[in-house]
Amino acid sequence: MSVAHSVIETIGAATAAPSGTGVPSPFTPEFELKIVSHTLRDTSFLQQCEDLVDRDFFSDASSRFLVTVAKNHYKKYESAPSIRTLTSYVQSAVKSGKVKKELIPDIKQTLKEAYDEPLSDLNYLIERVTTFARHRALQAALFKVVEDMERAEKLGVDLDYGVVEREFQSALMTGSNDANNGYDYFERLSDRTEAREDRASGKIDPSEYSITTGYPAIDSLLYHKGWARKEMVVFMGPPKSGKSTALGQFGINACRAGFDVLYVSLEVSDLVLADRIDASLSSVAMAELTDKSTFVRDEIEKLSGSCGKFMLHQYPTMTFTPKQLARLIEYYKARGVVFDMIIVDYGDIMAPDFRTPDPIENSKSIYAGLRAIAMQYDAALLTATQTNRDGARSSVATMTDVAEDFNKIRIADLVISINKTEEEKAAQEARLYFAASRNQRGDITIRIKQDLEKMKFLTKILDVS
After folding, report:
1. pLDDT band at residue 358, thresholds of 50, 70 and 90?
2. Does 36 map to a domain?
3. pLDDT at 174 over 60
4. Which of 120, 155, 190 corresponds to the end of one domain?
5. Within a domain: residue 64?
């Protein structure tokens, strides 16, 4: 049984939202289910269609209730709700008497079907929903104009054709566009306040907005108490400083916490990456994996049932583009896998979607494309970059020590440099420095202990200053 299904089974009583709209659904039951599934699970769909999806799209009360809950959640938190949060909303609605217990079997069945339905055909879905919403808006505009004409005739006055024109222009503009994502700052104050209170009280699952680093001391330093969804973190360091090990470690930590992780390597093969993960999870040195293969297998098997997915992909250096990454994510999404964390090892050796003669412009395009993917897919995105020669020689690499293109610093939400002296390297220690930060406090130094033979980037936090 999947995590989603097991959580669905915990609903002890739930809902009967509004009994019926009396309006036949414009879609087939199969297409209704697709809309429900994307509304409950797909932040990308909500970003484009939240204002367009209406209750009367659905022929059953359970779908209307769940879609209303998901839309309300999105308005507050700007993401699709997790299954655990949906379950909490259902239970609260039952306890408060807002819904009828008789509807619980239907709610559970709708949830099961919605989570079994692949998140596929997004663009087609958006087009169909948009077309119907525009059609309905035009119908409403026609009725309004006819009413205005009759009223003007009764009063013996001229019809205001400027109003008529605006009615039809507004209807024709209905669609999945940027206007649907407008945010009314003052109107949404109560939403922001309630969202903060919900987070402070633990009512909302932290996974809605962040992915744990695996270390509470580091989580506490970050604005969202973990790697934030929709943001890009860049680890910066000289060659062989442990950037890939860091990316792997934080990916493993997310996976162990139940998150689904996509790891794309442009430098190391997927088999070597798998060996590194085996070493880290089993606490066996890379050089001893062969001799201790049975022990390693047993240790990994103990963890496999409690972890999220960890998908590894390798591509040749300087061939993989942001658009290819988006297609890869869509491939998995169509098969029901929605990644919480995306790791690219690493951005400097990607290719731009459109190559230009200017290497700085190419680099800017790559990093802007990566951050756009974090935003689009509601995921935490981790990657890495090199320091320049001065940074490699420096005791602490700062934002000005980034190699080649300072746009990386401007685009990233958080840049963490990896620093170690020869003495620290011999003692298997390092310092992580918050070199640039968009939201949390910068200039933070975290002194750590490492065990790189076992591919453990961080075994202990020694000090934070």
Report:
1. very high
2. yes
3. no
4. 120
5. yes
Q: In terms of C-beta distances under 8 Å and separation of at least 24 residues, what long-range contacts does 329-337 make, across chains too?
A: 329/262, 329/373, 329/377, 330/122, 332/262, 333/42, 333/119, 333/120, 333/122, 334/118, 334/119, 334/120, 334/121, 335/118, 335/120, 336/115, 336/116, 336/117, 336/118, 336/119, 337/260, 337/309, 337/311
CATH number at 260 reads: 3.40.50.300
Nearest alpha-carbon partner for 459 in 287, 292, 249: 249
Say if residue 168's pLDDT is above 90. no
User: How far is 107 from 444, CA to CA, in rounded Å?
Assistant: 47
197 lies in a domain?
no
pLDDT at 227: 96
* 303 and 350 share one domain: yes
Residue 203 phi, psi dihedral angles, 5° rounding: -65, -35
pTM score:
0.77
User: Please, are residues 227 and 341 in contact by the beta-carbon 8 Å criterion?
Assistant: yes
List Cβ neighbours of 263 (8 Å cut-off, separation of 6 or more): 247, 248, 251, 273, 310, 311, 312, 313, 343, 345
State the average pLDDT over residues 302-307.
86
| Co-location of 131 and 98 in the same domain | no
pLDDT band at residue 83 using 50, 70 and 90 as cut-offs: confident
Per-residue model confidence as pLDDT tens digits over 388-408: 888 888 889 889 888 888 999
| Strands ordered across the beta sheet of 380-386 | 310-314, 261-265, 341-345, 380-386, 232-237, 414-419, 429-437, 445-451, 456-464
- As a whole number, mean pLDDT of residues 218-232 equals 93
How many whole angstroms separate alpha carbon 109 and alpha carbon 66?
12
In a domain, 160, yes or no: yes
Angle, helices 189-201/61-77, rounded to nearest 10 degrees: 90
Q: Judge if 82 and 131 occupy the same domain.
A: no
**16 pLDDT tier (thresholds 50, 70, 90):** very low
Specify whether 246 is located in the same domain as 113: no
Is the CB of residue 278 less than 8 Å from the CB of residue 296? yes
Domain co-membership, 450 together with 304: yes
Domain total of the chain: 3
**What is the pLDDT averaged over residues 51-69?**
86
263 and 335 inside one domain: yes
365 and 351 in contact (C-beta within 8 Å)?
A: no
> Where in the sequence is the domain holding 164, given as residue range(s)?
125-176
Residues 302 and 391 in one domain: yes
123 pLDDT more than 70:
yes
Residue 41 and residue 80 in one domain:
yes
Domain boundary among 104, 120, 136: 120
Give how far the C-alpha of residue 414 lies from the chain's centroid of Cα atoms, to the nearest Å: 16
